[in-house]
Design brief:
By secondary structure, the chain is mainly alpha-helical. The chain has ten helices and three strands; from the N terminus they run αααααβββααααα.
């Protein structure tokens, strides 16, 4: 998934385009983060990989993913709308939730495949399903990494290291500010979540986690991208917003 920084800035840009008033914007902002709310009874004996799998299992539900065999798992937008389309049209929280899913879908289907080629064991043949994928080639440099290393959270050369560089870049480019006190207060102001696939008890913890993540990002140094193409990053936010309005403008309240 793209980082919460990308989700937040894309949400702010959409809010500007749609000219939300302050109260609507604030509810939309928090709702746009909701699919990442995960509540787990964590086993202290879990390895990092076991914890990651447990989190992803919950996120398959909250993100309305339906295909476990695809190399990249992303939300099934039709699956979500089948249940909640009418609600999205009239409820700003459902609308914000859907925009998060749309951003994930766009990122995994349009953006990331331009950056990475998924390879089989021979490091040459393109992989089409998850079990086949053993290596990832970074298109920008031609570097090939084992899949496990590419997705490792502590790898500076992998995708999570690149997320750190992306977050700093987006924060600076859009002058993004995150006010955890403001968004916590929104939860007290008639904030009713109509999406039954998430456990709302974790929202406050999510906002605090994101606050810590934001503070870490703004204090980090600016580094050159190792995976992403700079021109594609520059266009990402605008393209997500433009594409959403084009594809799902009929869901926007008039």
């Amino acid at each position: 998934m793209p980082s919460f920084i990308v989700h937040s800035v894309a949400g702010e840009e959409l809010s500007k385009r749609l000219k939300f008033d302050k109260k609507t914007h604030n509810k939309f902002f928090v709702a746009n983060l909701l699919p990442d709310t995960v509540q787990l009874e964590r086993d202290p004996n879990w390895s990092p990989e076991e914890l990651r799998k447990a989190i992803q299992k919950e996120k398959h539900v909250s993100h309305f993913r339906t295909d476990f065999d695809t190399i990249l798992s992303y939300p099934d937008l039709d699956y979500f709308l089948k249940e909640y389309e009418d609600l999205v049209k009239k409820d700003i929280i459902a609308f914000g939730y859907f925009f998060h899913l749309y951003t994930d879908n766009y990122y995994f289907t349009k953006f990331l495949p331009k950056m990475i080629t998924f390879l089989m064991e021979d490091q040459k043949t393109i992989a089409n399903i998850k079990p086949e994928n053993k290596f990832n080639k970074i298109n920008k440099t031609g570097k090939v990494m084992a899949k496990v290393d590419f997705w490792a959270k502590n790898s500076e050369d992998g995708i999570y290291g690149e997320y750190n560089r992306l977050n700093k870049y987006i924060i600076d480019k859009y002058n993004f500010k995150y006010d955890v006190v403001l968004y916590r207060d929104i939860l007290k102001d008639d904030f009713i979540v109509p999406i039954k696939e998430i456990k709302i008890d974790g929202i406050d913890n999510l906002l605090e986690e994101l606050n810590n993540f934001y503070k870490k990002s703004i204090d980090s140094s600016v580094e050159e991208f190792r995976i992403f193409e700079g021109n594609e990053v520059d266009n990402l936010i605008k393209e997500v917003v433009d594409s959403f309005i084009k594809d799902y403008g009929y869901l926007i309240r008039k």
